[in-house]
Write a structure and sequence with these properties.
heterodimer, A: about 375 residues, alpha+beta, 5-stranded antiparallel beta sheet, B: about 400 residues, mainly alpha
């Protein structure tokens, strides 16, 4: 339903007429007209002009919802939960007063489309004799949801774009050389990303020290890792929950790569909240666990037993998400751990199915993925059916 | 002659000091690490000494006296550095004998000065206290003996002063000095020696809230909840409105499943019109109490009220998002998270939860101000005593 043809016609005619608006070409890059939209989303607008642009405004169904003065023009809007047709209009204003606009319409969810909202995506690692098996086809897999066999409706490997949060502990116990190892490790991960992949880098202690938005700009992501000074305590639960929540609105293969010793001291959220979020969401959690075995500790916030429970629940959240824990003894092993995770993500099979026993009652559904022939399968252990 | 008479009167207590200092050398064992001879102070080397230099006892006394004079003359920047320089030059790590030499020399000077007026012990103790603070700040590894020595000097002089003076005022001064020293010990993660100092401070002044709170924190951090509660109740008996005392008591009572009293304290804190650093924590913990009891709507109300007062508090925002998420209001939760992700201020804010588990220098600020004032007011007495001491020395030499 785009009105691109009309806009294009305008481009052809207006220069001849010498009108100012012909100097500014506008194109809504995202969202796409092919998919229904809900809730918060980024409207990305491309602008080409022979003069400096003053601002870009975005309207949804005629109402101004946001503006940006700085390219790349990316405007966060909340379009609400109503299942309705929406018209997005972006208008760019040049310094001379020239303007340009683009319009895009998204349609409401049709009955068949509603099924997409219930699609469960599973990312499955299969190993044989210690090596990842990469030669399987759709027919090699069987999915059981609470014991009930399911029909696999989507299948692929290394096709979905990756959206990652690199959640890196830079609390005061990290020395300068540790931080440098973190930088190199995370950079190895970022360097391996494809053009369609996106990441957010979050450096945390008991607070967020640095943060990027989701972007595929590797340079911008890597620059966040330079010149970092460690500070503060550790609040893994709070920022892991925040990362999982941030991934909810994203598409594709979603993953949090956490680097921390996991000794959470300062979070306000208990690990049970992270576990709940891991169960309810679709993101994978990988935890590069510094220091290997957990050492019991006490703090003004929790005693030994409570801290032990927190640690166990955090581990449980990671495992149930379908990700895994990579224990490392020292930061020298970080780079290979990051590379290993990225390679594993690339080599996972993506299976999709519509649960035929979903009730949306929040109850736990156990997932069992079987592969024909020999092979070890690792994937999400289940999900909370919301 | 007067000086000599007074010195005679003080012979016994000063012997006690010697005994106390000698005894406390045993306490140093925890802090001693084998190391190479320490270098002289990194600051200004106004004494021109080298580490491990063989300085005769008489010369040590002269230098120590000179440092005390500088201190009494108001050279508050230079004198503590000079003391560090002297002590690190004389004491060789791992060589107990060098520490004894230093101790005897310093004792001799204090003995003479104290004979003139017992009040001189206060500024001398504060000088050692300041030297210890600087050593800690500089993070001098391999100087455990010197650090232990100067800390012990400060402690023993404070106790001696209280013993000799016997006054209520002396007890307050000594208690504050011990509290401040304990605070520094806590900062250096030395919980056991800190607890001992806090206990001594509380013995001297049972209404010393900083010391009572310090003790409670140590017990709390070591999961000795009943003991923590005992000291926190004493804090509130002395200072009923103490917000930190109230919060800690509330959390420790929660651990003991005394939820009603815990809730009451948290509600008092959130109702206070004048917020302190613990107020956002009180809201967080009140909401946690509700969440733990499956009172999701109550938790939400508490957090919304909190965010009206502290709209930029990232921790409260995350907590409300999690509560809403559980309740099924995922979209509003997402918007709250978006707010954190797009707000630079929420990233830079220092975390009150971190402060709760750390040593806040502010907790001992009152004690340090009190000490500084008391030391300053006695500098003239120290200057006088040191002048009198020269006369005595000259007289003795003349004989």
């Amino acid at each position: 339903m785009r009105r691109r043809a009309a806009i294009l016609a305008g481009f052809l005619v207006l220069p001849l007429a010498g009108a100012a608006s012909a100097q500014v070409a506008v194109h809504i890059l995202s969202p796409s007209s092919e998919q229904p939209v809900f809730g918060p989303l980024d409207v990305k607008v491309g602008v080409q002009a022979r003069e400096p642009i003053d601002r870009v405004e975005v309207f949804v169904n005629g109402k101004l919802v946001g503006a940006s003065k700085i390219p790349p023009y990316r405007i966060r809007v909340d379009v609400g939960d109503d299942n309705i047709r929406r018209e997005f209009r972006a208008v760019a204003y040049g310094r001379s007063g020239a303007t340009g606009a683009d319009t895009l319409v998204t349609n409401p969810v049709q009955i068949m489309d509603e099924l997409d909202l219930k699609l469960r995506a599973l990312f499955v690692t299969v190993t044989r004799d210690g090596e990842r098996a990469l030669d399987l086809d759709q027919g090699s897999f069987q999915i059981f949801d609470n014991g009930a066999p399911q029909e696999i409706v989507t299948f692929g490997r290394d096709e979905l774009p990756l959206t990652a949060v690199l959640l890196l502990d830079t609390s005061e116990s990290m020395r300068e050389k540790d931080l440098e190892a973190v930088r190199l490790g995370a950079k190895a991960f970022l360097d391996g990303m494809k053009q369609t992949d996106e990441a957010m880098v979050a450096l945390f202690s008991d607070r967020l020290l640095r943060l990027t938005p989701f972007t595929s700009d590797k340079q911008a992501l890597a620059s966040t890792l330079s010149g970092v000074k460690s500070a503060g305590g550790t609040a893994v639960n709070d920022f892991l929950y925040l990362s999982l929540k941030a991934l909810e609105a994203r598409q594709g293969q979603r993953v949090v790569v956490l680097f921390s010793d996991g000794s959470d001291v300062h979070s306000v959220l208990p690990a049970s909240d992270v576990l709940w979020k891991a169960r309810a969401g679709q993101a994978l959690i990988y935890w590069i666990q510094l220091g290997g075995k957990h050492r019991s500790f006490t703090s003004a916030w929790r005693d030994y037993a409570a801290n032990d429970r927190e640690f166990e629940e955090l581990q449980q959240g990671v495992q149930e998400s379908g990700g895994r824990i990579l224990p490392i003894e020292n930061v020298g092993e970080l780079e290979s751990a990051f590379r290993n995770i990225l390679q594993e993500l690339r080599q996972q099979y993506a299976l999709g199915y519509y649960p035929n026993n979903s009730k949306g009652d929040g109850k736990w559904h156990k997932i069992d993925v079987r592969v024909k022939g020999a092979g070890r399968v690792r994937t999400r252990e289940g999900y909370a059916d919301y | 002659m007067r000086a000599r008479t007074e010195r005679n009167c003080l012979r016994e207590p000063l012997l006690w000091l010697a005994a106390a200092v000698w005894l406390s050398t045993g306490q140093l064992a925890w802090a001693q690490t084998p190391g190479s001879p320490g270098p002289a102070a990194e600051g200004s080397s106004s004494l021109g000494l080298k580490a491990g230099e063989n300085i005769p006892p008489q010369r040590i006394q002269e230098l120590y006296r000179r440092i005390l004079k500088d201190w009494s003359a108001g050279e508050t920047d230079r004198a503590p550095d000079e003391l560090i320089e002297l002590e690190t030059a004389v004491v060789v790590e791992g060589d107990v004998g060098t520490r004894k030499t230093l101790l005897k020399a310093e004792q001799a000077v204090i003995h003479q000065a104290g004979a003139a007026d017992i009040e001189v012990l206060v500024p001398i103790a504060v000088l050692h206290h300041e030297a210890y603070r600087r050593l800690l700040d500089r993070g001098w590894r391999g100087h455990a003996t010197v650090m232990g020595h100067t800390r012990t000097m400060a402690r023993d002089l404070a106790i001696l002063y209280r013993e000799q003076s016997g006054s209520e005022g002396a007890a307050l001064v000594s208690s504050r000095l011990l509290t401040s020293l304990a605070g520094m010990q806590l900062q250096a993660a030395q919980q056991l020696p800190a607890a001992e100092l806090f206990e001594e401070a509380v013995e001297l002044d049972g209404r010393n809230t900083a010391a009572l709170l310090g003790l409670a924190v140590i017990y709390e951090k070591n999961a000795q909840t009943e003991s923590a509660v005992k000291y926190l109740r004493r804090v509130l008996e002395t200072d009923a409105g103490n917000p930190e005392g109230k919060l800690r008591l509330a959390l420790n009572l929660k651990r003991l499943k005394q939820l009603e009293e815990s809730r009451k304290l948290l509600e008092e804190l959130t109702a206070a019109s004048d917020p302190s650093w613990v107020t956002p924590l009180a809201y967080q913990e009140l909401a946690r109490l509700d969440s733990d009891q499956e009172k999701v709507a109550e938790a939400e109300k508490v957090l919304r009220r909190a965010l009206e007062r502290f709209p930029d508090d990232a921790r409260l925002t995350i907590q409300l998002a999690a509560v809403l998420d559980r309740k099924g209001a995922g979209r509003e939760a997402t918007l709250l998270i978006e707010k954190i992700l797009s707000s630079p201020s929420s990233r830079e804010a220092s975390s009150a939860r971190y402060l709760y588990n750390a040593v806040r220098p502010e907790a001992f600020a009152e004690a340090r101000t009190f000490l500084a004032e008391n030391s300053r007011s006695r500098l003239a007495v120290l200057a006088q005593a040191l002048s009198a001491q020269v006369e005595v020395t000259v007289t003795e030499v003349g004989r």
